[in-house]
């Protein structure tokens, strides 16, 4: 392939670097300059790295958005349960307080054990609710009112 001649002016420092690199690699200065110009004009590693980083960041953003959504569902579920429980559970008479505390302690211990089992098994209420609400044949209403179930 026939090459085209190009005359350029370089700063003395750049010319010195070009000359040193050509000498170190035992290549002609024109070949080193041609490779540098070619690299400058074509997409290089930094562009590919930037694209890969942008793709990873997009994936991370989607995961964070999903986590934020899951946290919102979780917090709303807990808030709804607490509000429903507080409005529907009558206060205990004063004389039953020690027995109620003991029973509450037992229930709490069972709750913590059940929570530990569910978390270690990977089964979550959020997954169950997602499956129920996305199942077109599901007859279970998914609403914000706990009294509607």
- The helix/strand series, from N terminus to C terminus, equals HHHHH
Rounded mean pLDDT score? 83
Query: Ends: how far apart?
Result: 80 Å
Helix vs. strand class: mainly alpha
Q: What's the gyration radius in Å?
A: 34 Å
Number of strands: 0
The biggest beta sheet is recorded as: none
Share of helix among residues?
A: over 70%
Question: Beta-strand percentage?
Answer: under 5%
Question: What's the shape?
Answer: rod-shaped
Poorly predicted spans: 140-149
Please give the count of helices. 5
Could you walk me through the main structural features you see in this protein, from its secondary elements to its overall organization?
- It comes from Bradyrhizobium hipponense.
- This is CopG family transcriptional regulator.
- With 149 residues, the protein is an all-alpha fold.
- Among the domains are: 31 residues, no CATH class; 73 residues, no CATH class.
- It contains five helices and no strands.
- Helix 1 packs across helix 2.
- The longest helix has 44 residues.
- It is rod-shaped, with a radius of gyration of 34 Å.
- The C terminus is likely disordered.
